[in-house]
Amino acid sequence: MVPEGALPILARVDERSGRRLARSTAIFSLLTALSRILGLVREVVAAYYFGVAGKINAFTVAFQVPNLVRALVADAALSSAFVPVFTELQERGERQRAWRVASSLFWLVLLFLTGLTAIFIVAAPWIIGLFGDPGGDKELAVGLSRVLFPIVALLGVSGIIVGILNSYERFTVPALSPVFWNLAIIAGLVLGVPRAQTMDTKLYVYAVSIVIGTVIQVLLPIPWLRGLDGSLRVLIDWHDPAVWRVLKLMLPVTLGLGLINFNAVVDSIFASRLIDPELAPTAIDKAFRLYMLPQGIFSVAITTVLFPSLSRLAARNDTSGFRDTLGLGLRQIAFLLIPAGVMSAVLAEPITRIVYQRGQFEAAQTPVVAAALAAFSAGLFFNGVMLLLNRGFFSLQSNWIPTAVALGNLGINAALDAAFYRFGTWGIPLATSCVNVAGSALLLALMRRRLGRLGGRAIADSVVRIVVGSAALAGAAYGTWWVLDDTLGRSFFGQLVAVVTALLAGIAAYLLACRALKVRELGALLALRRRLPQA
Q1: What is d(CA 331, CA 465) in angstroms, rounded to the nearest whole number?
Q2: CB 451 within 8 A of CB 392
Q3: Handedness of CA 132, 136, 139, 141 (dihedral sign)
Q4: How many Å apart are CA 189 and CA 48, to the nearest integer?
Q5: Is 51 left (phi over 0), alpha (psi -120 to 50) or beta?
């Protein structure tokens, strides 16, 4: 029972936490937005040169295979297991030991992933064979995958470097590194592709540009490790239990991420074998890139900012603080991702037309990608919830729980792919959205069992108000676009004016509705706006 006099104090604490989260998330989101926008420019350039039909599908599959291995054992899996242990050692005052653990893991990961890369390069023909004949050129897909596999080892060591910086709550450089990754790829495409004589050579230029960009992404944050209270050294301490604890924690994280990413592989197999091998895989991939823009700007920002704090609260056994921080994060994700999902769904076709429809990307391909984007958008909020709850369990070092949920999602995803592929290309993203709904509901129930109450009434109250506000957004955005589309026509400039105006009208309607409905997350945003000039 909370004493009556303590309620105003708790309210002020929650308000300060909300403002602090909003401020940190806003800074990280702005930096991430820059990299995501450049990523979108990268996709626009690639779509201009390659479209979504033909041999580009060989590249899509070739890139997906090393990307899956990277997700299994490289940056995301490693950071998720490393940050809680590194943070716990720091909280206990064992800073020198924490850096010894980091150094040992750095070299272990580099040696292991280099060997694994060599194995996959040799086994590439058998791996690519699982996808049939992507892009109508299996040999091209095999060659491209061999060029791309080294990114696995590179991003593995990057996971350690980024994990250290995030543990010290230094998010700026890790958020900016992808900017240079995208710039390197864009430069490679613009300078290299026009000079290449054949489509095969052009795709190899694309692959080499990705490898060069990854090298830049890994090296860029290293100077920012200087000035911390330790440094990476050349050593491998096999005997430290903390090293083995990170590796043990990596096992369920690896399995969990592997199952999540294996869903994407299953999706590609269905798309390539049962829908259209020369269109569906890349159409889904292009829609996914658009879908990931708000995901990367908002939910990745919130979870990245909160992960070290959640790990620190877990290390202190501060269940109440952990619970409040997690609930705050869930409400912020709802406030940002529900309207973003609605916006990308109602404006899916004009957004796709503006971003991609030029060069080799033909008008007939736009509705296919737009339908996939709308289907993805239905699960945007739930994907953000899953991401945050996974990080919550990783902070508690209960990594097997998300793994078990991911295993269940794998079965659901395969069953829904088998049922929904008959709808066409957009049926595969629809299956993904349904899996996101099921996975987030199960993770939420398991987290509530672990922590007790999560502020469910406050979260539900916010979500209901946000959904109402998002309905106002949908009406304003689509209505504005429909009127301007009819007036201005389908030229690039006309569509750009129509879509930008519709976005602004939708955002304005959403904010006004949230203010009228007294959505509490809007208060944190308005407080941040008032404090930025002072800062």
Answers
A1: 11
A2: no
A3: negative
A4: 10
A5: left
For residue range 482-526, list pLDDT tens digits in order. 999 888 888 888 888 999 999 999 999 999 999 898 887 776 555
Q: How many CB atoms lie within 10 A of CB 219?
A: 14
In angstroms, rounded to a whole number, what is the distance separating the alpha carbons of residues 414 and 437?
15
| C-alpha of 265 from chain center | 17
Strand spans (E) along 13-144 = none
Query: What are the tokens at 309?
Result: 């704090």
What is the widest separation between alpha-carbon atoms in the chain? 76
- Contact at 8 Å (CB) between 128 and 141? yes
d(CA 521, CA 458): 11
Q: What is the CA radius of gyration of the chain?
A: 23
CA–chain centroid gap for 40, Å, is 14
Least Cα distance to 325 among 315, 316, 313 occurs for 313
User: Two tokens at 384?
Assistant: 């953000």
Distance CA 132, CA 128 (A): 7
Ranges of H-type helices in 74-137: 75-91, 95-128
pLDDT tens string 335-367: 989 999 999 999 999 999 988 888 778 888 889
The CA distance from 135 to 64, in Å, is 14
